[in-house]
Amino acid sequence: MEFDLLYWWLLALPAAFAVGWLASRLDLRQLKRENRESPKAYFKGLNLLLNEQQDKAIDAFIEAVQHDPDTSELHFALGNLFRRRGEFERAVRVHQHLLGRADLAVSERDRAQHALAQDFMKAGLFDRAEQAYRALKGTAFDTEAQLALLNLYERSRDWSAAAEAAAALERSGTGSFGTRIAHHWCELALEADAKGLAEAADAALAKARAAAPHAARPLLLAGQRLAKAGRHAEAITIWDELRVRDLASFALVAHDYADSAVASGQATSARQRLQAAYEQAPGIDLLRARARLDGHDLSADAALMSHLRHQPTLSAALAVLARPVDQWSAEAAQAVGEAVARAAKPQQRYRCAACGFEAQRYFWQCPGCLTWDSFPPRRVEEL
C-alpha cells in the first residue's frame, strides 16, 4: 500500500512540473506579445506627433493605453496632447482617471494633480484651477503652483491675493517680486480712489513704495493724486524725485508737471529743470511740456525743427504739419519727408502668409518656410 502511494507521488510530481512549465510559457508568450504591441503603438504615436499629425497620434496613444491601461506615462502623454489641441474636457478626464487610481505613487499623483490644474487654467476655469493648484501645497510642484496662482490672480485682477502670493514667493526665496508687488498695491490704490476711499489709497501707495522704493509707478501715481487734489507744489516735489530716479518714466507726466508748475507759480524753475531733462534725454513729451511753460503750442516752438532732424518721428512730424502753410520751409518739408519715410519703411515689406517672414523684395518661394506662392503680391501697408 505504501509502495503504491509512493509510486503515484513519483508520477504526480513530474506531471505537476510539466503543467506549471507549460502554463508559465503560455503566460510568458502572452506577456511578450503585449509588451511588443504596447511599445509599438506608443512609438507609432510619438512618430506621428513629431510629424505634426496630432489626430493620428491621439488614436495611437489611445490604442497604447488600451493595451497597457496601468501605464501612467501613456496617460500623461495623452492628456498633455489633448490639452495642446484645446480638447480640455478630454484632458481633464484623462488626468482625473489617473487621480482616481488607488495604486498610483504619491509623486505620480502630484504630477497628475499639476496636469489637472493646467487643464483647468487653459480652459479658463479659474476657480477650479485655483483649487487644484492649492492642493499642490507642500509637494514637489509647490513653487510652480504658487507662480501659477500669482498669474491667475493677476489675470483675474484680484490684486490683494496677488500681492499676498508674490510676498509668499519672495519669502520662500523664489526670487525678487518687489516691483511686481508695488504694481499690485498701485492697482489697489486706483481701486480705492475710484470708490472715494482716500485713506485706503494713501495706505496702498505707502505699501507700494515700501515694497519697491526705487519703482517709478508709485511716485508717478502719488504725484497725480496730489495734483488732482490741488496740492500742486507737493506734486512737483514728488515728480522731481521721479525725474531724478527715472527720467524715462518722468516723461509720462511731463505735461502734468508743467500744469502743476504753472498752478503753483514755479513755471520758471520748472522750465529750467525740463530743459536739463530734455538735454539729458531728448523726447517729444519733454519738448511739449517745455513749450507749455513758454506759453505756446509745440508747433510754434523754435526747437521743433532741430528735434525733428535728430529724432525724425511721426509725432514731431505731426507737430510741424500743424503749422500754417505760410510758415513752411524747404527744410521743414525735407524733415517731414524723412520722418514719414522712416516710419513707413517697416510697412513697405512683403509678408509670407504661411510663416510671417518679411522681406523688402518679393519672393515666389518663402526663404523662411520654403512655401511657394505664399507671399501676397501686396505690401503689408496695403493689406
Automatic annotation (TrEMBL):
Keywords: Cell inner membrane, Cell membrane, Iron, Membrane, Metal-binding, Repeat, TPR repeat, Transmembrane, Transmembrane helix
Side Cytoplasmic, residues: 25-383
Membrane topology annotation: Single-pass membrane protein
Residues in the signal sequence: none
Sequence positions that bind Fe cation: C352, C355, C366, C369
Chief location of this protein within or outside the cell: membrane
Transmembrane segments: 6-23
LapB rubredoxin metal binding domain segment(s): 350-376
Function (record text): Modulates cellular lipopolysaccharide (LPS) levels by regulating LpxC, which is involved in lipid A biosynthesis. May act by modulating the proteolytic activity of FtsH towards LpxC. May also coordinate assembly of proteins involved in LPS synthesis at the plasma membrane.
UniProt family annotation: Belongs to the LapB family.
Protein name: Lipopolysaccharide assembly protein B
Protein species of origin: Ideonella lacteola
Higher taxonomy: Bacteria, Pseudomonadati, Pseudomonadota, Betaproteobacteria, Burkholderiales
